[in-house]
Known about the structure:
The protein is of the alpha/beta class and 333 residues long. It contains 14 helices and 8 strands.
Amino acid sequence: xxxxxxxxxxxxxxxxxxxxxxxxxxxxxxxxxxxxxxxxxxxxxxxxxxxxxxxxxxxxxxxxxxxxxxxxxxxxxxxxxxxxxxxxxxxxxxxxxxxxxxxxxxxxxxxxxxxxxxxxxxxxxxxxxxxxxxxxxxxxxxxxxxxxxxxxxxxxxxxxxxxxxxxxxxxxxxxxxxxxxxxxxxxxxxxxxxxxxxxxxxxxxxxxxxxxxxxxxxxxxxxxxxxxxxxxxxxxxxxxxxxxxxxxxxxxxxxxxxxxxxxxxxxxxxxxxxxxxxxxxxxxxxxxxxxxxxxxxxxxxxxxxxxxxxxxxxxxxxxxxxxxxxxxxxxxx
Length: 333
């Protein structure tokens, strides 16, 4: 359960002097941000996980759902600026840009590689984090052993329109008059955005209520409980986890909605793996598959998880572990 006064990450079970379990903060882009570092052997490759959002940290979830990763990697779970544990009142609005987030990610990657004496790391992005991850992999392939995009973003305008239409259709099918009325009042998003952030928040609430986020609706509730009750969070962090989502959205959503990676990034000089949930209505498995078909990369693999929605790495953790072990094996001499 969360701590009232200080966070902590649990010790590695059956740990040795070569294991690591640390909750740390460091300055990235001049601002304090938090991360956990967990692994059975500090000589293992580094896996850097970039969470979704914007403003949606899931600290503790990777440790809970896929603890086996820590046997094969040093797992770095980063809480991005302005999100949850890394929110601070002194954060400047003008530093809440996607370019700054990518710069933070690059700085963190360089720090981790130097600290653990490695040349390259395994970079994993989820949803919003896939844009940051792809931009870094394209810009600095020399740092990336392999990139894994989970619920990969491609074209935000097309994805948001698809999500809205799916949500409205589900509401009509279930005879949910309140949902239908609110969604119809919003109208379809234009270039990925409604008239205000309020519209996106309303639409997302109905997607959760109508079971369109995860394949099994109860899994969404389980993920929420894991994040809210994990011991890395203090009471203040927990409050910020929910209270600062709108602030993040207002600053970052307009820029996020303009993302079209198929136009922006035609090639990545590193192995690329896309993990898609077959039932993902937030991003599009079809667009991800089409993008990977044309993306130039030394190795590519598209993996469809049949019992997953928009949080595939936590919905089918065993399959996700298998993908990560294949990515690791593909990069071994």
